[in-house]
UniProtKB/TrEMBL annotation:
It comes from Phreatobacter cathodiphilus. InterPro entries: Universal_stress_UspA, UspA. It comes from the Bacteria. This is Universal stress protein UspA. Pfam families: Usp. Residues 160-278 form the UspA domain. Belongs to the universal stress protein A family.
Length: 280
């Protein structure tokens, strides 16, 4: 089974999703032959203040204006998405929801559970990073995170890399990505050496054998960390080999109701150097 039903999480506050991100998302859907649903969440801003502050600053009016901006930006991004989908030949629809900023991750995760893959554009605004984390670890579905300012790639999945360390999350990511791997022109398995003991426990040739059973030929590479953070190693490797997509497992654990990301996962989710399919 392939990816046929994609979700794209639009941002409406404080700044709307840019056109470059919308073009990329519809391009991904077109490359996969999938339909796409844009999810626009209206941000509900809580009213805070007191009588004096309200009289001096007109806080209710300011909150109402920001709510209005969020709703207007949501409508504009939906229209831009539908036009981009039309140009790309993608069957598209949109849904709306509403909630406070602290609820956005949970809301998007709920919608993600009934889609094959959720696309999330990452920029400077940290809200999208938090949504990505919620989807990756809370939806039960894979997520495709990508830099929002990146230019659209006409063949985004022609060359695909797999960040492989023989872990459970990595195995889950490979299984989720099989439809993309099967159609890729080039597949590269990369293990980062001198960084994590688990990488040396089993040979990456085991994964290459498994992929071959699915008709997928893969090149195996070993990339020394050489003191670099693993997120940087993977980004450098992707750039060197012209990858359009990286497939990797996501690491994290709970601590006092907060989710603590692994180092590589944190780097990739906050500043993805290229489109990355993440699974947990």
């Amino acid at each position: 089974m392939g990816f046929k039903d994609l979700l794209f999480a639009l941002n409406s506050y404080p700044e709307p999703t840019p056109a470059s991100a919308i073009d990329q998302a519809t391009g991904f859907a077109a490359a996969l032959g999938a339909s796409a649903t844009a999810l626009a969440v209206h941000v509900e801003l809580p009213h805070v203040g007191n009588v004096l502050a309200n009289s001096l600053l007109d806080l209710p009016g300011m909150v109402a204006a920001e709510r209005g901006k969020s709703e207007a930006d949501a409508r504009a991004t939906i229209a831009a998405f539908e036009e981009a989908a039309r140009r790309a030949g993608v069957t598209a629809r949109h849904v709306t929801d509403s909630g406070q900023r602290s609820q956005l991750g949970a809301l998007v995760s709920e919608h993600a559970r009934t889609h094959d893959l959720t696309m999330i554009a990452i920029g400077e605004e940290t809200g999208q990073q938090q949504i990505a984390e919620s989807v990756i670890f809370g939806s039960g579905r894979p997520a495709l995170v990508f830099p929002e300012a990146r230019a659209r790639d006409a063949t985004p999945f022609a060359a695909v890399g797999i960040a492989w360390d023989f872990s459970r999350p990595a195995a889950r990511a490979v299984a989720d990505a099989l439809p993309i791997l099967a159609s890729a022109g080039t597949v590269r398995i990369v293990t980062v050496t001198d960084e994590k003991a688990i990488a040396a426990r089993r040979p990456p040739a085991d994964l290459a054998r498994h992929l071959a059973c699915h008709g997928i030929e893969a090149v195996i590479d070993a990339e020394p960390a050489a003191g670099r953070p693993i997120g940087q190693v993977l980004g450098d490797y992707a750039a060197t080999h012209g990858l359009g997509l990286l497939v990797m497992g996501a690491y994290g654990h709970s601590r006092m109701r907060d989710f603590i990301l692994g180092g590589a996962t944190r780097t990739i989710v906050s500043r993805p150097p290229l489109p990355v399919l993440l699974s947990h």
